[in-house]
Amino acid sequence: MRENLVSVSSQSMAFTDCMKPTDLSAEKKGIKSRNWRNRIGFLLKINSSQSILHLMKNRSYRPTADDVNQWAQSLDKLLTHKYGKAAFCIFLKSEFCEENIEFWTACEDFRTLTSHKELASKANSIYEEFIKSEAPKEINLDFHTRNAIIQSINEPSATSFLAAQRKVYSLMENNSYPRFILSDLYKELCAAARGKGQAH
C-alpha cells in the first residue's frame, strides 16, 4: 500500500501537503490505539460545525451499515451524511489537512447567504482564515485562483469562492477520500455499524 501512496504522491503535489509517506506508520498506530468512539468525542471538542455537534450530541444515534457502505460510493455521499462528514474530518485531522474540509464547509455556508453585508463579512473571514498568504489554515491554491478571490473580495458574490471550492473538493476526492475508504478508521466504522449492539 505504501508503494501506491508514494506513486499518488509523485502524481500530485497536493498529497505532500497533507501527509508525508513517513507519517503513515504513526497515523496507523494512532488510529489503532484509540477506539472510534473516542475519536468521535475528540471531534466534538474541536470541530466548529454546529450541524455535526447537534447530531453527535444525540448519543443514541449510530450510522447503519447501509449508511457507512454508501460513504464508499462517492465523496458527495460521504459529505452529505453528517456522521460521515464527521468521520472524514477526523481522518483529515490525522493527515494534518483538515483545512480542506473546513474551507469547503465554510464555502457551502457562504453560498447560502443572501445579504450583501453578510457576504462581505463572511468573505473577509474566509479570506483571512484560508486564502491570504500565511493564513492560519492556508489552503493550497494556484496563483490565478487565489488572485481572482483577492480581486473580488471587496465586492463578493455567492460565487466568489466557487472555483477554489471546486479545486479543494477535487483535491479531497482524488487524494484524501480514497485513502479514507482504505483506512483502518473506515474499516472500524464499517465493523461497528454491522455490529451496533456490540460496539460499546
**Low-confidence spans:** 1-36, 42-60
Structural category is mainly alpha
Distance between the termini: 31 Å
Number of strands: 0
Strand content: under 5%
Give the overall shape, derived from the CA principal axes. elongated
Largest sheet: none
Along the chain, the helix and strand elements come as HHHHHHHHHHHHH
**Percent range of helical residues:** over 70%
The number of helical segments is: 13
Average pLDDT number: 76
Radius of gyration: 18 Å
What does this structure look like?
This protein is an all-alpha fold. The chain has 13 helices and no strands. Helix 9 packs antiparallel against helix 10. The longest helix is centred in the last third of the chain and has 21 residues. The N terminus is likely disordered.
Question: Quick recap of the structure?
Answer:
The protein has 200 residues and is mostly helical.
Helices and strands in order:
Layout: H1 2-11, H2 13-18, H3 24-33, H4 36-46, H5 50-56, H6 65-71, H7 75-80, H8 82-94, H9 99-110, H10 116-131, H11 143-152, H12 162-182, H13 184-194
Helix pairs in contact: 5-8, 6-13, 9-10, 9-12
Provide tags for this entry.
200 residues, mainly alpha, 13 helices, 0% strand
